[in-house]
Amino acid sequence: MSGLVETGRSALRSALERVGRGWGKVQERRPLSYDLLESDDAYLVVFDAPGVRGEDVDVTFLDHTVEVSLERFRDFYDGYDLVFPGRGVSLSSSVDLPRDADVTPEGANATLTRNGTLHVEIPKREGSGDVDVVEADD
């Protein structure tokens, strides 16, 4: 009887592992969640970045777009076996910024917070702003 119970446990563990790996792959295909905020002189993009370290984050600026890629790793715990590997490990996202964003690495900064968010601040271009439109007399 114990052989039957052990076989059942093994089958359940195998099924959970397959489901978990599938769920992790789904997470890797979805873009990271983010908020885009604006102040008088800058834009702030706040990405969800749980479980990553600064050296595992890449922030790239390309054509008024901020691209972020994260690699996170699963910690191993003594005395525990991984049953459900449900967290994606390679995550990414991109954000199209308004035209007045100064999308260059020189003025921007990125901060990984302790609560698992990545803040990317991009200054606005000097002298940019709305242009008054005047109707011409015909």
From TrEMBL:
<feature type="domain" description="SHSP">
    <location>
        <begin position="23"/>
        <end position="138"/>
    </location>
</feature>
<comment type="similarity">
    <text>Belongs to the small heat shock protein (HSP20) family.</text>
</comment>
<dbReference type="InterPro" id="IPR002068">
    <property type="entry name" value="A-crystallin/Hsp20_dom"/>
</dbReference>
<dbReference type="Pfam" id="PF00011">
    <property type="entry name" value="HSP20"/>
</dbReference>
<dbReference type="InterPro" id="IPR008978">
    <property type="entry name" value="HSP20-like_chaperone"/>
</dbReference>
<protein>
    <submittedName>
        <fullName>HSP20 type chaperone</fullName>
    </submittedName>
</protein>
